[in-house]
Amino acid sequence: MKMYKLLTLFLAFFYYQHTAAQSNYLPGYIIKSDGETVRGLIDFQEWRVNPKKIRFKTNEAEKSTAMTIKTIEGFGIDEKESYVRRTVDVNIAPIKVNEINHSRKPIFKKRTIFLRILVEGKANLYFLYDEVGKEHFFIEKDDLFAEELIYTEYIKLLKNKRAIIPFEQYKGQLNEALTDCDGLFFAVKDAEYKRRDLVAIFEGYNTCNSASSSFSAKKEKVKIQIEPGVLIGLGANKLDFIGTMTHDLGDMDFDISPTYSFGAYLNILGDRSRGRYALRNELIYNSIGGSTHHEDIQSEDVYAISDVKLNLGYLQLNTLFRYTIPTEKIRPYINGGVGISVIITQVNEIVRERKLYALPTTETGKAINYIKKQDFSIVAGLGITSARFSSELRFEFGKRISPYIASSGDNKTLMIVVSYKLGK
User: Fold this and answer.
1) Where does residue 67 rank: exposed (0-12), middle (13-18), buried (19+ CB within 10 A)?
2) Where are the beta strands (DSSP E) in 49-142?
3) What is the mean pLDDT of residues 204-232?
4) How far apart, in whole angstroms, are the C-alpha atoms of residue 367 and residue 249?
5) Is the pLDDT of residue 294 over 50?
6) Is 396 helix (H, G, I), strand (E, B) or coil?
7) Mean pLDDT value across the chain
8) Are the beta carbons of 271 and 222 closer than 8 angstroms?
């Protein structure tokens, strides 16, 4: 019951922290309506959908101010991303399979929005990710106002079957707009309506014309952060055997036993995620075990008394997916995944005293005749991290000790895991 209350309290705290808005002020700039550029700090929220407004302040001590489409011409976060305000016709033709129809014509809606700059030069490439999850790309060149590169899909009957056909109008638009640079025809012909392909085309075009115009690629710098560290865990485990096993272990109740683990980890984080998402790999030594005393007494002349001791040491590789709430100081997280383990040490012993109308005899042997050498387990945990330290309440279920379906032994472990991050 206490553990249930603790888990409920932690989940409530996790939910509160998740729903509370968290600031992330980074150096950047805004462009005012009169063209003046003002440097300061922008609350960078790693927008998936292009933002309609931002919060800006000139220094740490100042109170932030909301900046919208109506108040600024654009903004940028240093070494991250930049946006400009444009009034454009946006193609709102449906993209969901159940909404696509027989028309390949785009459906336009005029909007004033912040477009993200992907490439800037003689020809600019802009990007919009809208509220319904649709990607839009825009070209702006010389006297040509920002115009969407059109890609639509429509339904056509082919051999009495409905087929979804792509309409790649953007290729014709690119060939028409970029005619003053030889060598792009085949690149355009093979280009998919994806950021990678379109950025490469615009970079190639601007490089071709770089002698007469300035050129800068506003490509997103995708950085992978690697966080190495060490960990140690202390807790308790419970062995449960079911079925018909060696020495009738299924009839025995094992004690809750102390357990420990130690090892190293490697967190892999995406730069844009602010540490929200991480792939965590752990290589650890992990021990489980248990002991029990069992008596089967029918009379003073007929009885069997057993003492069992199991202690298994595993080399274990855990692969976990972690989600962290990026608060400023104490950051709650939740993670889960699988562990693959190989047994490297074992104590597997039973001492049994028997009497059957004769002198008692004592025998010592293996409690389990055959123990699985490798297995996997399910791992899940809730924790908090601050600076270099993190502390986690972790639950692990698995390690079916016996390989036989009719006689299996499961392990449940509850552990406090403390980690320390190495390096910078």
Assistant:
1) middle
2) 53-57, 65-68, 72-77, 81-91, 108-120, 123-129, 135-141
3) 72
4) 8
5) yes
6) strand
7) 84
8) yes
Backbone angles phi, psi at 94, to 5 degrees: -65, 150
Calpha distance 236→222 (Å, rounded): 41
DSSP state of 246: G
| Side chain identity at residue 370, one-letter code | Y
* Rounded CA separation 202/109 (Å): 25
pLDDT of residue 84: 96
Q: Which of 114, 105, 97 is nearest to 54 (CA)?
A: 114
d(CA 150, CA 177): 14
For the chain, the distance separating the N- and C-terminal CA atoms, rounded to the nearest angstrom, is 41
Query: Measured in whole angstroms, how far is the alpha carbon of residue 156 from the centre of its chain?
Result: 39
pLDDT score at 400:
62
Query: What is the reported pLDDT for 248?
Result: 57
Instruction: Locate 115 and state its tokens.
Output: 């477009």
Which is higher by pLDDT, 216 or 286? 286
**Are the CB atoms for 34 and 50 separated by under 8 Å?**
no
Q: Which two tokens stand for residue 151?
A: 């890609």
Confidence grade of residue 107 (pLDDT, cut at 50, 70, 90): very high
Q: How far apart are alpha carbons 77 and 55 in whole angstroms?
A: 12
Burial class of residue 265 in the structure, from the number of CB atoms within 10 Å of its CB (0-12 exposed, 13-18 middle, 19+ buried): buried
Instruction: Kindly tell me if the per-residue pLDDT of 209 is higher than 80.
Output: no
Structure tokens at 398: 């698995």
Distance CA 257, CA 208 (A): 71
For residues 33 and 171, what is the distance between their CA atoms, to the nearest angstrom? 34
Range in 90-99, 218-227, 354-363 the model is least confident about:
218-227
110-131 pLDDT, tens per residue?
A: 999 999 999 998 999 999 999 9
CB-count burial class (<10 Å; 0-12, 13-18, 19+) for 9: exposed
Cα–Cα distance for residue pair 44/320, rounded to 1 Å: 27
Contact (Cβ atoms closer than 8 angstroms) between residue 413 and residue 236 = yes
Q: Please, what is the Cα angle at 301 between 296 and 303, to 5 degrees?
A: 15
Q: Say what percent of the chain tops pLDDT 70.
A: 84
Determine the Cα angle at 61 with ends 58 and 65, to 5°: 50
Q: What is the mean pLDDT of residues 329-333?
A: 86
Alpha helices by DSSP H, listed for 130-251, are 169-177, 185-190, 195-208
Query: Is the Cβ–Cβ distance between 270 and 46 less than 8 Å?
Result: no
